[in-house]
């Protein structure tokens, strides 16, 4: 019996020691895991950073304050065009800081290149405006103005590229450019086709010959001098000016109260006179009304008499038979 108790005690002691060892080993594992978790998180973050694409330093994300190329047209001579008569046309649309200075510079460049300004239109389009009353019958007007210039220049054909490239210092933004070079024969053919469409069939031959001659001269001139269309914009600006408020001036310097009252009486009297004249003018209506009343008075007695006779006949027809008459018939 005592041996069994000793064995049980030993077994119990062994189990307790095993449980204690197991409990101590689990906190150690948690501690190791906790110690290893920051390192794993650091490795994970490093891997994510490695896989994230880095921005390309060559890409410029800043807004452009000016945008224009270094060169618009190549000034070198094309061998294919060297021995051909070409009709050159170019179109440039750009924005500048000062429209007036730019147009004056274009005039000078055209003169230096041996060309000319064929057409120039400068306009100031008002896109928005506000006004404010400042007293004394005046108003202050603020206008949002967008200056614009439309210029056509004629430049010697061989200097077209050089002239267009000289416009670069005047540009702030280049919005659009276009260039075309057509053979003389093709351009002349197009002009002839347009001429036949415009000229009537019964046009005399001398007049047709004159039109042909002028058309050929025009095409020859376009071969010698290229046509360059320039559309120039300027950033919107605010324009301030003083104007007169007509309504305020009229109210301020108009007639006094008594003058206006007398004018009102005068106007009212003339209104009454005009009304009387209008009533006199429609006298045929009065005549028609009087005739209708007279006709009604003449017809009414006959109508009443006819209605009475008709009503009396209806009463006689609907009257019941007398019982005495029935008795006499039975006695017979």
TrEMBL record:
Keywords, sorted A to Z: Membrane, Signal, Transmembrane, Transmembrane helix
Signal peptide: 1-30
Regions of compositional bias (Polar residues) in chain numbering: 36-69
Region Disordered: start-end pairs: 30-74, 312-332
Residues that span the membrane, as ranges: 269-296
Keyword Electron transport tagged: no
Keyword flag Metal-binding: no
Biased composition annotated in UniProt, kind: Basic and acidic residues: 318-332
Protein name: DUF4349 domain-containing protein
Originating species: Acinetobacter larvae
Phylogenetic lineage: Bacteria, Pseudomonadati, Pseudomonadota, Gammaproteobacteria, Moraxellales
